[in-house]
Amino acid sequence: MADPQAALLTQVRNIQAKTGKTLVQLHALLESSGLAKHGEKRSWLMETLGLGYGDANTVVTLQGKPLPAGLEGAAPAAAVVASEDPLDAIYSGNKAALRPLHEAVMAQIQTLGDFEIAPKKAYLSLRRSKQFAMVGPATAKQIEIGLNCKTLAEHPRLKHLPPGGMCQASTRIESADQIDAELMAWLRAAFESAA
User: Fold this and answer.
1) Main-chain phi, psi angles of 66, to 5 degrees
2) pLDDT above 70: residue 82
3) pLDDT > 70 in the chain, percent
4) Does 3.90.1150.30 match the CATH number of domain 86-193?
5) Reduced 3-state DSSP string for the chain
6) Contact predicate 173/179, CB 8 Å
7) What global pTM score does this model have?
């Protein structure tokens, strides 16, 4: 099993290399942005610095906490900070390669508007007044997107689910080109039905 602390250090170092800024500098930028909510800060980092969802989320999650042990500038005796990013657990092992695809679909879903993300053990539940979608790995090569919307028409890409479940339909994607207008229309319908 991968060492979560080592994975976090690698992720933070990669973020620093991508942005050319230290974690301390990134946190200073967040402070100066005036944003207060976790999701707003994450979106701001994604838009301003081009970070992916998971990287931006990690920067925000670490704000106000001691630098991860082992990172340049961290106190030698700093407590070990375990990653609080639920995606680290959801996309571990043979599903780790799906994380960029997850981040790509989440970035598109975020264009629909504000919503809450409730991490579960194996997926993220996306909520407004109620859950409108679920995103998580289905297999080592596919992400499943559950859609909580009763008005979705039959379609070869959609699997309609039995009544009484958390979603009425689901679809699976295995590449970014499947995050297309059709998928976004289904997500938009589910998003709007949960207003």
Assistant:
1) -60, 145
2) no
3) 92
4) yes
5) CCCHHHHHHHHHHHHHHHHCCCHHHHHHHHHHHCCCCHHHHHHHHHHHHCCCHHHHHHHHHHCCCCCCCCCCCCCCCCCCCCCCCHHHHHCCHHHHHHHHHHHHHHHHHHHHCCCEEEECCCCEEEECCCEEEEEEECCCCCEEEEECCCCCCCCCCCEECCCCCCCCEEEEECCHHHCCHHHHHHHHHHHHHCC
6) yes
7) 0.59
Give the span between the Cα atoms of 9 and 1, in whole angstroms. 16
Measured in whole angstroms, the distance separating CA 112 from the mean position of its chain's CA atoms is: 15
Mind listing the pLDDT tens digit for each residue in 19-77?
888 888 888 888 888 888 888 999 999 999 998 888 898 898 888 877 777 776 654 44
State the Cα angle at 73 between 67 and 76, rounded to 5°.
75
Per domain, the residue ranges of the chain are 4-62, 86-193
